[in-house]
Amino acid sequence: MRGANIIKTTLVVFIGSILAFGSYVVLKADAQGLNGAGLRRFRGHRAWSHSPQNSLTGKKFWSGAGKMEERKLTSEGMERTYYVYRPASQIKYPAPVVMVFHGGGGTARGMDRLCGGITTCADRQGFVVVFPDGISRGWNDGRTINEKNRPNDVQFIAMLCDSIVKEGIADPARVYATGISNGGFFSQYLALKIPEKIAAVASVAATLSDLHEGMMTHRPVPIMYIIGIEDPLVPFGGGKIGGKVLWKSRGTAIPADRAVDFWLANNGIDKSKKHEEVLDTIPDDGTKVMFRDYGQAGSRSQVSVYEIEGGGHTWPRGWQYLPVAVVGKTSQEMDANSVIWHFFNTHHL
User: What is the CATH number of domain 2-345?
Assistant: First the structure.
């Protein structure tokens, strides 16, 4: 038994070191809704009903029926890559744009699968998706560990936003940022650094770096958190990023409650005034969603929080990209793509 435990521990640490903070390989009901309309309106849409083609082969790596275009942009003398997905449905341009940021160790090409098919959601709802690629599979999100010899990713994204606005692709008042893990920290960093370009943010599996606490701008940005309480990499209660899985620390995350308090203070919201709901319609998935909403729906100050009891370092209804023993469970209680879009769709600059 002791030998088996040693082997298991060694395997977990080995996989974790390869992940380099969350590598993502290559990557019910119809009720009254959320933010005043109820959680249960978000039905599950299984975008990846069959195995997608491998993104390493150069074949189609997205679930939607629309077109994906690879693009290049030069920032700091470096050629940067991003992908623009235009939905199959007829939409009016300039259109709302959702930028989706991969986690550390991940890639732009792997994100649609990890999200469970956000491009399929774009087809249904009529928005453009942009998947930027980080240098060395990561983002410089302001944590000291990510700043050493790393590019200015905020500048890259600011230039990307300006480019797609100039081309008439993006409505400048409706550019949104979401991401998982390192991508979630980075999305919040963008809200602190270029709030004039970001209409709203949704951070998945990422609370807030302790280094971000001193960056409060008091310029309101609508924020959504989707956080697994059993996340083994970004501890819900705060602590070392990477938890017990990674040897090398990736900095320190503050507790989820403190991260929420940061944004409530930044946005000027009274934390005592909130709406709460609980969702547990799929008992056998081992998770439950606890939802809290602060501020007026659709206002620049709104803060929405989804705590996934039993959830891990994962995207709800997305891909279980590694075993539960390594990254925790993927909740089936909520369709994160629909929830995020519903939030974004109520906000603009």
Answer: 3.40.50.1820
